[in-house]
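Lab notes, practical 5.
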Amino acid sequence: MKILIAEDGLGIGEVYELMLKSRGHIIKLVRDGSECLQAYRDTAEALQDISDKEERQHPPFDLVVLDYHMPNMDGLQAAKLILTVNRNQRIIFVSAFVRSTLTEAVKQLPSPVELLEKPVDLDVLVSIVEDRRAYSEFMEKKHAAAKQAIDPSVEKLRHLLQDRSK
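Output from the prediction step:
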């Protein structure tokens, strides 16, 4: 796969790059959202120059991995602009801000994106990059675990409310 990674954390980006390169992927690593957008546009333009009309519908990268909090342009702004170039682009946010910021913010994007919370297990990252089903299964398990943790509290609340109404 051809993957564009935007990560301002020097060590983190390099770890992603090394891990994914070791699996045979072609990686372009950039340090902020504006570099990401420029690399994306440059690659898209180069592909348009050499491809026929039908191939232009395909994204210039198989995947874009974005951090949220980066200098010059955050990941959400970069994602919005990337999706204006190609709505079919697969994007994964890997960020510490998934719960506090991104979960609601990504709803304003014109296409669905995937979210992973830092710190992310590298094996999980590789599985999700290489297999979308792995991401779906991961999220289902996460939601099931969260639901199990909430259900007892909800039941207690129901009982309390029922007792009050008597």
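Observations recorded by the TA: The two ends are 62 Å apart (CA to CA). Strands lie at 2-6, 26-30, 63-66, 91-95, 114-117.
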